[in-house]
Design goal:
The protein has 155 residues and is of the alpha+beta class. The protein has a single domain, classed as 2-Layer Sandwich (Dna Ligase, domain 1). It contains 3 helices and 8 strands.
Length: 155
């Protein structure tokens, strides 16, 4: 989970520098690549990224050896980054778990809370709708140009 949440900080830092895209690679680990892909889908759906692409690198024998992720960053009409602020909530030394009832508090009205739940990675709104809690990974706040899009979830 640590590498996944660090990627959000990388996106925020790249946006502060005005980059249009960032690329990173990771060793081939099916579970962590699936979580990264789900996290990136959430960030695109919620309006933090324009899009992303994943290229699977393979050895000469055809065995998967890693993935290369390219993220296309999103900016507002005046060039401001889509991510205004980002906060780490769970740390390796202090995990933060929130029950579904605690997600009703309007702490992230202008942003999103990303949770690791039994249904996978969900936003706080998705977790509220299906009534599950989980580990709070990151809180992300937006600039005012953001418009929430529709989304689907497990349940």
């Amino acid at each position: 989970m640590k590498n996944i949440t660090e990627r959000i900080s990388s996106i925020h830092n790249a946006q502060r520098l005005g980059r249009k895209q960032i690329t990173f690679s990771s060793p081939f680990e099916v579970a962590s690549n699936s979580l990264r892909r789900n996290l990136l889908r959430i960030l695109v759906r919620e309006g933090y990224l324009e899009s992303f692409s994943i290229f699977q690198s393979v050895s000469t024998s055809g065995t998967p050896i890693g993935s290369i992720f390219t993220l296309f960053l999103k900016y507002g009409p005046r060039g401001e980054p889509a991510i205004r602020d980002i906060r780490a909530l769970s740390l390796s030394s202090r995990r933060v778990y929130l029950p579904a009832s605690a997600l009703w508090q309007p702490q992230f009205l202008d942003g999103v809370l990303i949770l690791s739940t039994p249904c996978g990675l969900l936003t706080d709104r998705e977790a509220r709708q299906i009534g599950v809690g989980g580990e709070a990974l990151r809180g992300i706040r937006l600039f005012s140009f953001h418009v929430f899009s529709s989304y689907s979830f497990c349940g």
